[in-house]
Amino acid sequence: MEEMTPAPVKPTISFDVLEKIDIRVGTIEEVRDVEGSDKLIRMRVNFGDHVRTIFSGMKNERKDCQELVGKQTLFVVNLKPKKMMGEVSEGMIFDIGYADGVLPALAFPERPVPNGARLG
User: Fold this and answer.
1) What is the H or E stretch that residue 115 is in?
2) Chain center to CA of 111
3) What are the CA-CA distances from residue 116 to residues 37, 60, 108 (Å)?
4) pLDDT tens-digit map of 12-27
5) Is residue 75 left, alpha or beta, with left meaning phi > 0 and alpha meaning psi from -120 to 50?
6) How many CA atoms lie less than 13 Å away from 42 in the CB half-sphere?
């Protein structure tokens, strides 16, 4: 395991602020490189009642991003859509460790759960 010094804890927030963030489990159904980008991948993610396109700058974090296909992980689904490389990303994947400069890892449920299940 990599060593690091944890960052200071961020300022306290109220519970109602936390409740505004919609975090859900989704299954990654497809991963593709984004043409013209050295780091972006495009994922098609199934949330049970709908499918979204979500971009992530994780291309260089893994030898083969195809290993993500079929995995369930956590996503923020109520962020404002963001245009990236001429397309729209409809959420954000949780990538643990990136902000701390360690090799990122994804947050996975300990057992399969229904797509669209909410955190909390």
Assistant:
1) none
2) 18
3) 29, 28, 14
4) 999 999 999 999 999 9
5) beta
6) 17
Burial class (CB in 10 A: 0-12, 13-18, 19+), 3: exposed
Alpha carbon distances (Å) from 105 to 9, 40, 80: 20, 16, 24
Entry pTM: 0.92
Domains of the chain: residue spans and CATH: 19-106 (2.40.50.140)
Tokens of 76: 């923020």
Compute CA 51 distance to the chain's CA centroid, rounded to the nearest angstrom: 14
Beta carbons of 58 and 41 less than 8 angstroms apart: yes
Radius of gyration of the chain (CA): 15
Strand extents, DSSP E, 35-97:
41-46, 51-56, 72-76, 82-84, 87-89, 92-93, 95-96
Identify which of 92, 84, 70 has the alpha carbon closest to the alpha carbon of residue 35: 84
Q: Using the predicted structure, report yes or no on whether residue 3 has a pLDDT greater than 90.
A: no
* Helices marked H in the chain: 15-19
